[in-house]
Fold each of these.
Amino acid sequence: MFSLINSITHCAQPYFPPQITFYTANDKVLYAVDEINQRAYQRYTISQSLYLQGFAMKHFPYAIPDSPQSKNYVQLSLSSPSNDCIYGTYWQYGGFYTTPFSFPVHWNYNWTSFHIGNYINFNYKMIHSENTSLKEDYWYADELCEVYTGEKFPCEEIYFVKNTEIPLRTTEVVRQGWDMMRQITTYRVVSIGEPDQRLFDNIPKNWAYDCNDTMLGIRYDPQMPTLKLNENITIQVWLPTPPHRVNNNDTVSIEWQPASFSECKDCVTWKPKRLSFDIENFNQKQILSVTRIKEGSVTLLPIFNGGGYDRATVGAYQIYIG
């Protein structure tokens, strides 16, 4: 700790340093934030042999040349040791579905833009306490928030090692279920300065080909229609984001088949049998015409071919006809 404190030349209180590596959540979560080079790393330890890694940066290595991923911010999530992985691209047609173990929500801008900023984001004006503590610097919000016991505390607080950039803990009044609670988060700083490159060396070189793009999917309107016998309905079909260009081909073809768990597998007919989308027409709504010929519910599952859709989650894009 002595060498860490004495290496600091600039104080950023009440915010975190722009380049910092630290543990939180009882050392279960490791963060490395590099605002200067616009990259961040996260490791969430579930057990000794199971952990999740997250990477976010603007110039993501090993991206396919001239792809949206090569030009925009990308967030990649990797499970170890299984190496299952998903990613999202922050641009006009996409983003990344956040989880409790994602990077700070305030780094997202309208869910289609992303910028790696300070780890801490205050919602109130912060005031530096003039207390006489010899070990800590203390900052508190200019407003009080009431917890479920009726007590009132500063809505946000942060503590640092005295006269340094080293954060110790934060407190925040948050809602947990029906109650307002005072949540305390502690930090253990590993280093201040540019994060260790070895953390980012864990990015799989084939992620652009092997990982699932969370934004590849289908949109339907309606997705769960109810049809009477001999009745027909038109379902609008389009894509939320352009398909990938694979081997110089950016077309994805979609067919449908009744799910094995359907009540009736031959209750409806549909046409055309196949719809195709590419980078130019992905968001143009095409028509799938469905007609009921027998009673019984049926679930239609998509069959993808091309466009990077081979890893898409089929069950998430089903049509249910009741």
Amino acid sequence: MNLGSGRIRHLTDLKIPITILSAALLLVSLGGDLGSFSTLASNGIAAASSLGSWNPNVNCTPTIVSIEQILGNQPNSMGGATQSGSIFNPGITSPVGSAKRWLTPGTTPQGWVSPGPPCTITNANGQVVSSFVEVHRVQRSYLLNEDYAVIYDPVNGGSSYPSGMNLSDTTTNIFTPGYTTCSSTNTTGCMHTIHMEFDHDWKAAGYCGPNTSCDPYAMAQATPSAYASNCQKTPVPSACFIDIQGFVYWDQDSSSDAIHSFSGWEIHPLTAWRISTASPSFSLAANPSSLSLLPGQSG
């Protein structure tokens, strides 16, 4: 995360219109029934999403988890989640460059390193777990544009972006409703919050952005920040809650940052989002030690 001067802008300040197709996707998210959720396993963890990946560029089946199940239950001295306390430790990795920017197989740039981010990883305890997850009914903080780039990461070949594009990551934090505060003076929400990014390489390749399942501009238009006045109403409007899919990654460089909830864990790349279709009563037990299911399995 680069917090340099002039490189961060609130996404809502960008006057960029949503395309017709993006608007259509929003209507589906807002009003359509996108399918039923998979049955919860006996340990309170859903084995997999009944719909699979919402992004056609991702050929993985996600495991449905809560933010708390990703983070684990071991806070560090600053109040954020440790790497070793998560069953997803070490997160996705890559042979070169940065795994958080690794494109999945598809219309990839020249020099892209095969095979792309794995659907499963072997964690630090020797367990095979899904690295591709789905999280339901969370709220988000402000959207920011940062870390601009004009070339692909080495893991994606290192060539220039098409048409001279200069693209940013679009970042935000998502959190369990009711846990909006994570700061050096109040760490109440830190173990219930995780960082999330629309990646600039994924935008350059057309995997995210307009006309896709991970369009940050559509999110800015359709889903208010949890701090917005609309999301302070009772009952809270449904547009204030989202479901997301993406890969679990540990960013060591950001592990002590307040804006990163004092933890390196993040959903990066984010691969898809939608207005939440989960009911307010939908919940997942925060029991990270039992999360050892592979996609398609049950407890």
Amino acid sequence: MTRSVKWTVLLLFSLFGAVIGVYSMHPGATPAVAESKDKKYVGDQTCKECHSKQHQGFLKTSHAKAFKSLSDYPLVEPVESIEVINTILKDFPYSYRFDLKSDLIKGVMMDHYLIAEAPKEANFYGSRNNPYFIVASLHPEAEGKWSLRPAIQGDFNSDGMTDWGAFSYTCIDCHSPGLKQNEPDLRSGISCESCHGPGADHVAAKEKKGTISASSEACLNCHGEGKPQEVNGKLVAQNHYGPRFFKASKHAQDETMQDCTVCHTAHRANAEGHLLKANSAEALCAKCHTDEINLDEIMWKNPTDARGHFVRDHSFGAIRYDDLGDNPDTKPVEITNPDVIEKLKQAYPELKKEK
């Protein structure tokens, strides 16, 4: 491929990426930070002046580790910089050396992926017109130390050497909403105002009640259920962030049970590390139900999801895994049983309209 042809292809790809960036969103997800016309954010430090207990509890939750500073991870051996190659455009394996102390290093997602912002001169191009890339991975070692390793590795520029690869950071909407919003008063990860919305009016108000949001709407920005998709006569449910099949449950028919905060809290984790208002799911269910609860039956896990990307089923027994006709060798949850498909179409009327 000649140099001029390469640059033409690159230009066309960039324009295509910009268009895709405008029109594409993660299925079922919207930006996690609550929207506001003025967007008067005050930051976590201001929030915790009055809500220190909630803030301390939040710091122990999985939401708090959704995105943290690299400085929170002391390395076994000092590393000043890393050179990575963009793996998205195979015909243009551009490399860039990131100084780990520079402002381009944005943070670490879920104690694992190191995220950096690729400057224009790096000639990195990602999906959804997104300048953020996963450039390395962190791994726990002894004595609270961490090692830095490639997020992906291979001979990406065909020089016979093993390279560190970089690829698009597409989890930004929910794991680091503050980073996407580019608001100086918001922490890069999930903050108080990611869920409650801008807090300036709440801080200024003499009467605080009713001046800040706290409802399921905030949860559903990232934990939206997402309806199953019909593919070749079967239904496929693959969303990893939402309460699968909740609309098919009896809880969904009870107005008093439809808010996420009936069972969940974002301000503290229980003894098992979950955001539940009891030390276990069984104990929580027992507050209303006297029957013995078998969690694996009424809230089954996808058996092919080793990394835990999929939440437990939230139909609470209405849709049982053994009834799905799922292929356990594939990661998505596939529903081939006609009776279950019909039941889900009753719960999701929009499926009836699709061909």
